[in-house]
Amino acid sequence: MKWTKFQIKTITEAEDIIISTLYDIGLEGAQIEDKVPLTAWEKEQMFVDILPDCPEDDGVAYLSFFVEEQEDGSLVVNGETTDAAAIEAMVRAELDDLAQWMDIGEGTITVGETEDIDWINNWKQYFHQFYIDDILVIPSWEDIKVEDQDKMVLHIDPGTAFGTGMHETTQLCIRQLRKFITPETVLLDVGTGSGILGILSLMFGAKSVVGTDLDPCAVPAVAENIEANGVNPDAFTMMIGNIVTEKEIQDQVGYECYDIVVANILADVLVPLTPVIVNQMKKGGIYITSGIIDDKEQTVVDAVKAAGLEVLEVTYQGEWVSVTARKN
Question: Which CATH superfamily is domain 173-326 in?
Answer without folding.
Answer: Vaccinia Virus protein VP39 (3.40.50.150)
